Queue: 3 jobs
Job 1
Amino acid sequence: LQASRQPIVAGVWELILGFDGAEFYCKEWPELTDKPWKDVFLSFPNAVPFGIKRGEDILLNPSDSTLVEADDEILVLAEDDDTYEAGEKYVPSKAVTFMLGRVNALSSGSDLKRAESVRRVSRKEQILFCGWRSDLFELAKGVDMACGRGSLFYILCEVPVEDRKLFFLEDGEPYDFHNIEVIHVVGDAAQDGVLESLPIASCTSVVVGSLTGDPDEKTWSPGDRDSRTIVSILRVREALLKADALFKCIIVGEILDTRSRFLVEKAEITDAFVASHELISRSLAMVSEDVTVNKLLERLFDPSGNEVSVRKASRFLPSLNEQLSFYDVMFFGRDRGELVFGYYSPTEGIILNPENKDKPKTWTSRHLFIVLTQTTLALQKAGEVRG
């Protein structure tokens, strides 16, 4: 779901759940006791703090005023557990502080700080899901929370509509979606002509799942399913191209076999792909090493909590093409209530927990910042965004 709206998020999750780059670690730092989160956040040169582990609970992306208590552990994203330590808090220059103050004055306080979230909530979307899965109801509820009122969610698969509706019940009654209308369509995206019968030209994103609802697919190997997925993706591209909408729509595919992954990457037929089996395996491996990760993943996928998202540099920084350190970017993010932990550029790719955070760098319109931010549902509950 996240990848269908912001394709780079899929790559971010691959890195987070991998073992080759930055990982999550928890450790006590007695010298940070009684320090507010806004100071703690800028006190680790070689890591990015994500939150506080307090007993069995995790305070993810806490407010700036949250104080570290005795016995608290700081949850960070770092290269390894021995590659980071707490240091002196980074203090932005007077010029950076002045820049932020000027932006706040022009934006009349917090009106524009949540502007990105407001736009995200109010935006109508049209999402086409090709395939079937038993948890599609939960996925649809996630779409309902993330999209603006009046959005459409098409489900195209071979499962009869009456059978599908049995999955969309809550307490025995049809679920009442708030922001989306679920439209069931019977068909197979891999078949010629099926997609042309749908308003695909107006789709904002298309997600192709690995399961189609075909009664015989239980006998298919992961490679067979991936072949079907790739054919469906090519059909989607063809239909979008005919409708002159290929570059207006995000295409995401689910891949099961890691060997198919390299084929999809090389062919560049999707904006993003999700290797679901691989991600699940990695998650289980991380949880087996540290049970804290299980609680963390629960928090990261909680629709009423925080989520990984992407921000354009042009909408995040006061001005572009200026020499600002990554610490400065993190500082600007905290003023928005967002936790910046990486960036993306076409030349560098996805960089998490950058090195030399205090070194000035020129940020251009081609840069995107990777952040942990409150979900739209969380913001709605707080009354900070429109429904």
Note: The mean pLDDT is 83.
Job 2
Amino acid sequence: MVRGGKLKERDPLFELVLKWITTAEWDMTLTLREAMAKAENLIEQHVENPTGSELSRKCPGISAFFTKLPLCRALDNLSKRVAVEERRFVPPTFSEVRQVFNIAQVYEMKGRVEMLTFDADDTIYEHGMDLDKNSWIVDALCTIMEMGIYIAVVTAAGYPGKPDRYAARFKGLLEKFAERKYAKDVTDKFLVMGGECNYMFIVKSDYTLEEVPWDKFATDAMRSWKDEDVTSMMDLAEKSLTESCKRLRLDVQCLRKSRAVGCYPKQVGDRLAYEALEDVAMSVHDALRNHAKVPFCAFNGNLDVWVDLGDKRYGIEALQQYLGISEEKCCHMGDRFTHTGNDARARYVAMTVWVTNPVETEDYLELFLNEMGADKAKGCAINRRHGPMEGSAEWIKAQVVQRNTAS
């Protein structure tokens, strides 16, 4: 459960907790446990009164919480793995505070959640990769669906009219469906929402994907978007994106789709500076915020920048409406909960868990399965392999490092 993901992001609530620990207030600081107890109390008050709570005054603009968070119990969990409360000179990190909040939210999912939604890249598989059948995440997702919980991938990837493109990204899961000969009662539990909120896909009887017509899942808010306003927003976004990349001298190519426009490196394998991508995303947002007549999402994808029509809030709302599931019974896991990330808006319509990579996603799914308590769920959790597979490139590298360190 302990991960050292390097987050180049900020969160006002997590920073408030760290401030209580590292900055004297009334000539005193709080221990990590005292800070978590204080945050737990403030969140409980905020659940009861989101607009007039003390937390809303300390963190202006903070979204509503759908559950209370047992942060002290979650800290017990983290402390079993790393002696964070025993450190004398090094204060808790942003990552450790984030993990405590995540664990607390997973605890609250038990017996409550009816749908889990996931970002794709850097959440259930590495950026730009596909879901592998041998990944433990596939087994975990299958087990959760077998137990009656919906699984939906809500991704920025937009392939309008191309269900095969999405099927290729989730090939490993669909192959597992066929291998286990799942009936409709299980396969109906898996959905894909592409382009943030613009394209929905469901599983057919032959374990391929088919697109759901827009008018079958779009919410009333989404139906109000006018074509001319969409085109105007896209034109302005493309112009700002192009100008920003030119200003920063980025070696990129731009691609415009029907409901998205983005930029990415020209050369395969090249990486653009994170700060440059942030500047591009913020520049586009600044150009659109007072002119766009339709909602949009301009986000830094860590390797690229994209601007989509709508955002994941609309995508998750559409799924909730389509399936008849309320907000407080849905949880979203993703890696981009920042001002320039495309998971942040999910906080308005679902519980959330902020991960940094697929390994962390596995950590929280393992915890959730154990918390569910059923033999099937616990069995899946027990079968998770920790560390690289023996014989793999990662395993060989680890052996070399261990040998050189111990010699």
Note: The CA atoms of residues 151 and 190 lie 5 Å apart.
Job 3
Amino acid sequence: MATTTAMRLLALVATTLALQPTLMKAPRRASKRTQVSMLGGFQMPTLDSLFKKDAKTITSREPGWLKEAREVSGYADRVAEIEALADSMASKTDEELRGMTLLLRQRRQNGESLDDLLPEAFAACREASTRSLGLRHYDVQLVGGMALHEGKLAEMATGEGKTLVATCPLYLRSLDQKGAHVITVNDYLARRDAETLQPLFDALGLTVGVVQSESTSDQRRAAYACDVTYVTNNELGFDYLRDHLAYETEELTLTTRPLNFAIVDEADSILVDEARTPLIISGEGDDDAPQKYDAATLAAS
């Protein structure tokens, strides 16, 4: 039996030696993954390419992700400044809180920037909302207000209080006394938001106007003269066009003063969907319009 076992071992060794040259000649496996060509020239990316930084990221002193992180950090710092003023605002009487508007406007006229006034303005607006509406701005709503003040798009889900978010930047921008508009998609929303937030703006000493489709010229002029005006995109657009057809300054409604600041509610609907429909308006021509046209054509030639 031992002899049989020894013979089997010898046979196994002989077989291994015979196969060894073949194994050594086998091609070595590539150390790097080869790119697979598919779908008409599409190259399957390797792990190295997925994690490779582009030249701008490598050479830039402030990559995009770092800039975004700093912006978010800046918002957090501002929220902390606003929160630090909460007790001070809460201790003020209603008259003192309303007087904050006059004080901030005077400081604005003296050269302070809106960014410098932002913490106190936002803190005063939040306190006024707490007293008049029973609603206190959450931190995320304050951040949304800061983004709107900076002219950015602020995306918020339904139920996160978009109507309340707009109040802080509206109050801040009203300190310039040049007017601030909220542009909505229909008359109902414009009227509802204006009526809902009226107590808040009253507590801060601001005037609020609303423009509806049935509003007369005098009503429109009075509404646009307020500190905060709620209006639909169509009414605002046509008022702008009508002002450019006016012959006398007394006929103007919207452009009696420079357009200062506006918040667009439902921006995707107004700036994309509604923008596909042009606003067209026409006025009565002069009796000598054909002669003027012929003269202009002759002069152009």
Note: The first helix runs from residue 2 to 25.
